[in-house]
Structure formats: C-alpha cells, structure tokens
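Amino Acid Chain and Its Fold in Token Form
===========================================
Scope: a single protein chain, as residues and as a discrete description of its fold.
Amino acid sequence: labelled as such and written in the usual single-letter residue code.
Position: the record begins directly beneath this header, with no further notes in between.
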Amino acid sequence: MQKEPKHSACEKQQARALGQSPWWHNTIVQGLCACCQRHSHPNELTMDHIVPLAWGGRSTKGHMVLCCPMCTKKYWKPAELLLQHFRERDPR
C-alpha cells in the first residue's frame, strides 16, 4: 500500500482541528484510555487514530481515541489491539 502525501497532510490538519473542538475536550476530561481501559490524567492522554493514516485512516470523531502513555509507547496500534481483544474473546 502506497500512502499519498496529500491524504496524510489533509488528515493531519483535520486531526488538529478536531483536537481543538469541544467534543475532544469533553472526551479528554473522561480520562479513559481506549486501549487498556485505565484512567489517566487528561494531560497525559494523547490523540491516536484507530487506523493509522499510513493505512488509509481518517481523522473523524469515530476514528480518534485517547491513549495513555503506556499504550502510546507500545508498537501496537489501536486497530491491532481491538482485533487482538476480539480474537481473545472468540478464538476460532
């Protein structure tokens, strides 16, 4: 898969705008990491795309999640963590 520079630049700009929105500020106040489901201080949480931009992800409300510092340091992306979670629940 080849990433397009225009796609990434446009999506990053949209993510910055979304980070300034009231919706995002209300989401941060909850302080719940989407990956590990632990509460963290709002200042420690970061915005992360569920599907990375390099994989064709979008910067919309449904595709943005909070990540704590521990989950941000991991090499797993939120999409991969969700898939792993579903595999553990239903191993076929």
User: Anything to note?
Assistant: The beta strands are 46-49, 64-67. Helices lie at 5-19, 22-30, 69-73, 78-89. The CA atoms of residues 4 and 54 lie 8 Å apart.
